[in-house]
Amino acid sequence: MNICLYGSGSRKIDKIYTDAAYELGCQMAKKGHTLVFGGGDTGMMGACAKGIHDNDGKSIGIAPEWIGDFEPLCETCTEFIYVDTMDERKQEFLNNSDAFIISPGGIGTLDEFFEIITLKKLKHHDKKIIVFNVADFFDTMLAMIDEMSEKGFLYKQEEIFEVCKSIDEIFSCLDRCY
Hints:
- Strand 6, helix 5 (139-150) and strand 7 (162-164) form a beta-alpha-beta unit.
- The protein has a 7-stranded parallel beta sheet with strand order 4-3-2-1-5-6-7, sandwiched between helices.
- It is 43% helix and 19% strand.
- The protein is an alpha/beta fold.
């Protein structure tokens, strides 16, 4: 299965997050899954890619070439798809992935998360979306989403995404669906 990881590329994040991303990459590789990601060599993306490559797994990096001016790109990807824009990048994530994992990140990660759940809600895809809530990182965002639903701003007809706090939960969730 091709699993897309959204997450930070920052070098400043706490090791608790990058350790979790590294272990996720290790487990993905051991289970024969391919990582699809933004191609960054640092932060959550880089740690997960390192776990993949340290365990002889496969990865597909997707990014515009100019993003290398902002962060280093991973040089060990099995495949790298260069695009012109961030919108094309997100479309390629959708085209090349069977499931999505949202790991801790910043504004870019939130942009990707809200777009992929919106597209699912609008029936543009039916792929599994998992929020990897490492060290309760997403609790405030999840509370905001619950409040939006309680106040009638969101339709809560079905669960659009699942929240998992551990790697074992992530793979149990994926195994139930695929």
